[in-house]
Specification:
It contains 8 helices and no strands. With 138 residues, the chain is an all-alpha fold. InterPro entries: Got1, Vesicle_transpt_Got1/SFT2.
């Protein structure tokens, strides 16, 4: 595989971070699960792309508002305000990683089962809008 061992560990940590955040939200914003998910997600992201690139990603001038909201949301979760923290963190996450959604949706459209699901009539319109696809009137 094309990933190094450190990057493989980073992918696992990021996946577990997402899982713990999902469980934390499903269990009525359990602060401990959300905090653990945030720690795993951030450490996994750092292992995947490296510490220097992670710093430069979060410190870019265009991403400062998203970075401030994301870090502020993480801090609110750590300070036992999980609902408000997750709202602020989600806003920051969308500002930081919103540019990657078209790439992710294009990849998902190529998968066997998920691609067929995303091609259903009403879902396709929403996915096209999220991906930024343009349709012609002709």
């Amino acid at each position: 595989m094309w990933l190094s061992d450190t990057q493989k560990i980073g992918v696992a940590l990021t996946t577990f971070g997402g899982l713990f955040m999902f469980l934390g939200v499903m269990l009525f914003f359990d602060a401990a699960l959300l905090a653990l998910g945030n720690m795993l997600f951030i450490s996994g992201l750092t292992l995947i792309i490296g510490p220097q690139k992670t710093f430069y990603f979060f410190a870019r001038k265009q991403k400062l508002r998203g970075t401030a909201c994301f870090i502020g949301g993480v801090l609110l979760v750590f300070l036992k305000y999980p609902f408000i923290g997750m709202v602020v963190e989600t806003f920051g996450f969308l500002n930081l990683f919103g540019d990657f959604f078209p790439v992710i949706l294009t990849f998902l459209r190529q998968l066997p089962f998920i691609g067929n699901l995303l091609s259903l009539p009403y879902i396709r319109q929403v996915v096209d809008r999220l991906a930024g696809s343009r349709t012609s009137a002709v």
